[in-house]
Design brief:
The protein has 6 helices and 13 strands. By secondary structure, it is an alpha/beta fold. α1 packs across α2. Bound molecules: ribulose-5-phosphate. Homodimer.
């Protein structure tokens, strides 16, 4: 097979995920460059007459879906979904994920957990043996930011990780504000030896709104790379 660049790989994974979509489905639409390929391909199918109803995981995805005239709902009006297709920053052999590189992981997690199936689409560079190469995003309340930052650091240390925690900024140097009005801190922890333990510690911190570890949520990962498409987990 000819070498694929990462963007072609993302599109290939998105195209494979589109095969899972059947008429009448209620879909969760992820956020990010890979998910954007899926939204675009879905939009082309909708233009050909496919009937689906979709819940976007971010304002960015909502805007893109509207451009393609994809019928949209909200998670309040459609709290049960058949399938969510979303990208990831990393996945490990147990299909545990790091998400939130686009700052949308709170809505992404709510939508994924409202779905019978979450299928992740990625290029093969996102596969890791141990999570933590990518900084772990944590959405935090604006109030008490410094307290929360210290508590996250303590939770990371207690879970065998150490590193730096940085407030995410926009290119103009202002704090990045999520669609939900919160800040995001990026935790540069290196290898996370026990993601389940770290996740449990993070949810116990009052200022933490949601962390980017997705554990036991993804049913399958469709990963595309130079060797073609690989499926991890169960698509069905
Ligand atoms: O979690 C996410 C957004 O919050 C994205 O799915 C993740 O960052 C991957 O993005 P991309 O497909 O652009 O590599």
């Amino acid at each position: 097979m000819t070498a694929l660049n990462p963007d072609d790989a993302k599109r290939l994974a998105a195209a494979r995920a589109l095969d899972l979509v059947t008429p009448g489905m209620r879909l969760g639409l992820g956020t990010g460059t890979t998910a954007a390929h899926f939204v675009e391909l879905l939009g082309l199918r909708v233009a050909q007459g496919l009937q689906v109803i979709c819940v976007p995981t971010s304002e960015r995805t909502r805007t893109q879906a509207q451009l393609f005239s994809i019928p949209l709902s909200t998670i309040e009006a459609t709290p049960e979904l058949d399938l969510t297709v979303d990208g990831a920053d990393e996945f490990d052999p147990q299909l545990r994920l790091i998400k939130g590189g686009g700052g949308a992981h709170l809505r992404e997690k709510i939508v994924a957990m409202a779905s019978r199936r979450m299928v992740v689409i990625t290029d093969s560079s996102k596969a890791v043996v141990t999570l933590g190469k990518f900084p772990l995003p944590v959405e935090v309340n604006v109030f008490g930011l410094e307290v929360t930052r210290r508590m996250i650091l303590a939770a990371a240390k207690a879970s065998g990780c150490d590193g730096e925690i940085r407030l995410r900024k926009t290119p103009s140097g202002h704090p990045f504000v999520s669609d939900n009005g919160h800040f995001i801190v990026d935790c540069f922890l290196g290898s996370i030896p026990d993601p389940n333990q770290l996740a449990a510690r993070l949810v116990a911190i009052p200022g933490v709104v949601e962390h980017g570890l997705f554990i036991g949520i993804a049913k399958a990962v469709i990963s595309a790379g130079p060797d073609g498409v690989e499926i991890f987990g169960e698509l069905g």
